[in-house]
Design brief:
By secondary structure, the protein is an all-beta fold. The protein contains no helices and 10 strands. A hairpin with a 4-residue loop joins β7 and β8.
Amino acid sequence: QVRLVESGGGLVQPGGSLRLSCAASGFTLDYYTIGWFRQAPGKEREGVSCISSLSGSTYYADSVKGRFTISRDNAKNTVYLQMNNLKPEDTAVYYCATAEGSCRPTWSEYDYWGQGTQVTVSS
């Protein structure tokens, strides 16, 4: 079965860092584009970052550019999202998801989703 499992979320103070992991099973992750999305209470789901299976190109939302870094470890079948200088507005449930082709900002274009991991940035 196809599974994606996010981990690494938690509670962190503003300015702190977290590293999220998206571990795949049942398929080879490097065949797919992997996107990170987040959804905060009362807000719409938004694309955070993406790494393309075709070119390796990356995408970052303007709100996280310069603070977040996406990477892929094919040997571990895992994609990471390093989040630095976290802000309260980064608080959300973070999801990873698969897509075919190049990176896409629209969540409806993604096929398989993990269960999400909670990130809370608060003093």
